[in-house]
């Protein structure tokens, strides 16, 4: 079932045991958290029963550690959540996940987020409720254009997000900015205190954006004024 959207699935009355989510891992990890909180009334940040795990390459040893945690009873309530993002997964890791998903623990929910379902074995896909979000990847040119602009132009750029109070769009925008700065850091000559401070500010705004009633206007305007202008 790869046509359902995240919003439709995570606002349903009953959550299934294991989801597979295709798309931008940074965007969709935060989107899963946001939609679970708004659609299910959960609080995942600082929740001991909510596990956010991120891997460049998920290996079998990582899955073995995951299995150990998944077998434990929830610290509070009756549900535990494992949000797992992985750029790639080894065949051995996928087979280990397959065994984990074949014998679900009651009240435990898994969200496996990866850039493409092509990375997953057909047998593993068959154990997952598959979701792909057509709009999950924001255009990369937006963050670059923003960073090349003057403060006044930046504020104009943010008008739509602020007026619509588009929290999801703001999260995509933050990830877009973060990716662009990490791209700059691939060249040693670009490493500077300004870039390091910019990444810190982006992460700080993302943290505040996760509050229940954040001031989207104040947070985005702060970035407009604080982030360095890129001239290259």
Describe the structure in brief.
By secondary structure, the protein is of the alpha/beta class. The chain has helices spanning 6-10, 25-40, 60-70, 91-102, 122-125, 141-148, 151-164, 167-184, 193-209, 216-226, and strands at 18-22, 50-58, 80-89, 108-114, 129-132. Helix 3 runs parallel beside helix 4 (91-102) and helix 8 runs antiparallel to helix 9 (193-209).
Gross geometry: globular
Q: Uncertain segments of ≥5 residues (pLDDT<50)?
A: 134-141
CATH architecture of the largest domain, by name, is 3-Layer(aba) Sandwich
CATH 4th-level superfamily of the largest domain: P-loop containing nucleotide triphosphate hydrolases
Q: Report strand %.
A: 15-25%
**Helix coverage percent of residues?**
40-55%
Mean pLDDT: 83
Read across the widest sheet, the strand sequence of neighbours is 2-3-4-1-5
Largest sheet: 5 strands, parallel
Order of helices and strands: HEHEHEHEHEHHHHH
Number of strands: 5
CATH class (first level) name of the largest domain: Alpha Beta
Q: Structural class of the secondary structure composition?
A: alpha/beta
Number of domains: 2
Rg over C-alpha atoms, rounded to the nearest angstrom: 19 Å
How would you describe the overall organization of this protein?
The protein starts with 5 loop residues before the first helix and ends in a 6-residue tail after the last helix. Helices cover about 50% and strands about 15% of the residues. Helix 2 packs antiparallel against helix 8 (about 165-185), helix 7 (about 150-165) packs antiparallel against helix 10 (about 215-225) and helix 9 (about 195-210) runs antiparallel to helix 10. It has helices at about 5-10, 25-40, 60-70, 90-100, 120-125, 140-150, 150-165, 165-185, 195-210, 215-225; strands spanning about 20, 50-60, 80-90, 110-115, 130. It contains ten helices and five strands, in the order H-E-H-E-H-E-H-E-H-E-H-H-H-H-H. A five-stranded parallel β-sheet has the order 2-3-4-1-5, sandwiched between helices. The longest helix has 18 residues, at about 165-185. The protein is an alpha/beta fold and about 230 residues long. Helix 3 links the parallel strand 2 and strand 3 (about 80-90). It has two domains: about 5-130, P-loop containing nucleotide triphosphate hydrolases (Rossmann fold); about 140-225.
């Amino acid at each position: 079932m790869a046509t359902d959207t995240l919003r439709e699935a995570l606002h349903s009355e009953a959550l299934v045991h294991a989801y597979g989510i295709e798309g931008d891992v940074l965007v969709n990890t935060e989107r899963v958290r946001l939609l679970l909180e708004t659609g299910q009334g959960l609080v995942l940040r600082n929740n001991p029963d909510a596990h956010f795990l991120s891997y460049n390459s998920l290996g079998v040893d990582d899955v073995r550690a995951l299995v150990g945690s998944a077998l434990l009873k929830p610290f509070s309530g009756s549900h535990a959540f494992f949000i797992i993002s992985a750029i790639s997964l080894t065949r051995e890791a996928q087979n280990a996940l397959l065994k984990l998903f074949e014998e679900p623990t009651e009240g435990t929910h898994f969200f496996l987020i990866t850039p493409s379902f092509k990375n997953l074995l057909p047998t593993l896909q068959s154990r997952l409720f598959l979701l792909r979000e057509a709009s999950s990847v924001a255009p990369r040119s937006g963050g670059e254009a923003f960073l090349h602009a003057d403060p006044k132009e930046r504020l104009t750029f943010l008008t739509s997000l602020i007026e619509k109070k588009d929290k999801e769009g703001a999260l995509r925008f933050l990830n877009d900015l973060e990716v662009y700065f990490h791209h700059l850091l691939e060249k040693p000559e670009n490493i500077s205190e300004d870039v390091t401070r910019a990444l810190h500010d982006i992460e700080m705004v993302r943290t505040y954006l996760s509050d229940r009633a954040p001031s989207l206007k104040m947070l985005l305007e702060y970035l407009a004024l604080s982030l360095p202008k890129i001239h290259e």
